[in-house]
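A.,

Following up on our hallway conversation. Structure tokens first:
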């Protein structure tokens, strides 16, 4: 009886042992596979404890988007920050929605807080870009993982009324938030970073403490070889913003060898031995009056369409040139490597100064203004201003007569040589070109033009290919009140 009881107890113990063993094995397997799943999850997102921020918070430039014209406040914004921008900056902005403006001088170590302070002093605004946030979190994370103490940023203060805007990359910020929650379970020092990421995700208005702490603790960045420092000007929520930016060597490269590229309409075959530079002619940049004849109405382009046309040329990276530059290219007999154009304006009407000139200046383009020297609606002071700001002031005679109908040599001399002298005395520059009133001239006129020191004479026509031998009867094509008409002319299909 005793032996049977012992045997029974032994069997029960044996069963219990196997049950415990099975439970232990099951728990171990569960823990192992759970651990493996975590590791695989981290590996799938290319994150590990050592280089967590670099893996996913690597900054990429915003996806480019195109603009048809510049924002209405673009010039005021540029003037406010005293930026001496070039046409290439505008080309970049129209094509990508942003451009990089390099500073003339800067130290090797960039204190981002000081840079933001300088910008805030100008406009009382701070724009925290993804680029800057990347640098901040990378710096903070590195300090934690390497056991470094965050430097005390003593004396750093932000004005209470400063307006703070944030470029949110919600996908990246949500990623950071989730993984910082996990990392916080391993190390409590990650808690402050987690709170800051959540503050960024939830930020709308007002300068809460976490956001201010990010700004106050922005790092000092040491520039690497081939890096350049300056500002990134971009659009955020349809508003122009500016922020510190460290550019790499190949950032924002503009293709200036684009002569044969990017036409919306297939160009015609170029004439053998010619140079191809479209010369455009404009008259009135104003709203079309109903009282004018059909012919005169055809000389008008409304301001909105004119800006679209100039913006289009800029976006396509056309370089507008002076008549002297045109002559020098013509003399070589070779096409330029960059898309090139001449923008000419006849009759020196008031809207050339009030409307056309500001738009050309806004887009960094050069206009050639053929001025009737003794009958101009643009004053001498205004002509001087235009000339000083890159516009090319040339002759459209003294009084705008039909030159072929002048019978006396003295009259012809007064109209051609007299206007050249008068305009040169206003601008202080040489007058190199003349546009014939009504586009009419003859051999007598050509001879007088050449003898008076002009390099070129401009008429009308449909050709965009030119020869040096015809330099005193250059064809110009009149642009009408549509963007499509401009595209047709550029391809030689007018």
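Then the amino acids I'd put at each of the 494 positions:
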């Amino acid at each position: 009886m005793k032996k049977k009881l012992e045997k029974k107890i032994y069997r029960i113990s044996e069963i219990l042992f196997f049950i415990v063993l099975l439970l232990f094995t099951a728990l171990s397997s569960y823990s192992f596979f759970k651990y493996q799943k975590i590791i695989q999850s981290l590996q799938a997102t290319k994150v590990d404890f050592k280089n967590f921020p670099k893996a996913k918070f690597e900054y990429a430039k915003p996806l480019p988007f195109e603009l048809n014209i510049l924002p209405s406040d673009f010039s005021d914004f540029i003037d406010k920050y005293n930026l001496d921008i070039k046409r290439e900056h505008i080309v970049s902005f129209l094509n990508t929605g942003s451009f990089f403006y390099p500073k003339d001088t800067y130290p090797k170590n960039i204190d981002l807080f000081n840079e933001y302070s300088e910008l805030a002093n100008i406009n009382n605004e701070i724009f925290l870009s993804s680029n800057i946030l990347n640098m901040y979190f990378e710096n903070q994370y590195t300090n934690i993982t390497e056991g470094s103490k965050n430097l005390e940023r003593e004396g750093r203060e932000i004005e209470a009324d400063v307006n703070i805007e944030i470029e949110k990359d919600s996908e990246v910020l949500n990623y950071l938030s989730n993984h910082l929650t996990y990392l916080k379970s391993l190390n409590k020092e990650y808690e402050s970073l987690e709170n800051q990421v959540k503050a960024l995700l939830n930020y709308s208005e007002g300068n809460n403490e976490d956001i201010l702490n990010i700004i106050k603790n922005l790092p000092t960045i040491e520039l690497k070889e081939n890096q350049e420092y300056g500002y990134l000007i971009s659009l955020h929520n349809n508003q122009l913003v500016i922020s510190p930016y460290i550019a790499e060597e190949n950032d924002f490269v503009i293709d200036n060898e684009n002569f044969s590229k990017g036409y919306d309409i297939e160009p015609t075959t170029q004439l053998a031995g010619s140079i191809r530079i479209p010369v455009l002619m404009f008259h009135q940049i104003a709203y079309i009056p109903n009282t004018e004849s059909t012919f005169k109405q055809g000389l008008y382009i409304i301001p909105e369409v004119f800006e679209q046309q100039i913006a289009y040329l800029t976006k396509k990276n056309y370089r507008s040139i002076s008549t002297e530059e045109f002559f020098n290219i013509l003399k070589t007999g070779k096409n330029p490597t960059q898309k090139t154009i001449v923008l000419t304006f006849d009759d020196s009407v008031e809207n050339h100064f009030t409307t056309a000139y500001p738009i050309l200046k806004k887009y960094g383009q050069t206009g050639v203004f053929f001025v009737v020297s003794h009958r101009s609606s643009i004053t001498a002071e205004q002509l001087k201003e235009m000339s000083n700001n890159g516009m090319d002031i040339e002759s459209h005679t003294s009084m705008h007569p039909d030159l072929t109908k002048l019978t006396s040599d003295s009259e012809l001399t007064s109209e051609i040589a007299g206007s050249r002298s008068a305009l040169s005395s206003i601008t202080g520059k040489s007058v190199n070109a003349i546009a014939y009133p009504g586009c009419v001239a003859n051999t007598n006129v050509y001879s007088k033009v050449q003898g008076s020191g002009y390099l070129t004479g401009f008429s009308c026509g449909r050709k965009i290919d030119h020869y040096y031998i015809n330099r005193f009867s250059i064809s110009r094509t009149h642009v009408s009140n549509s963007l499509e008409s401009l595209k047709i002319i550029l391809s030689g299909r007018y």
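The chain has 17 helices and 19 strands. Curious whether your intuition agrees with the design.

B.
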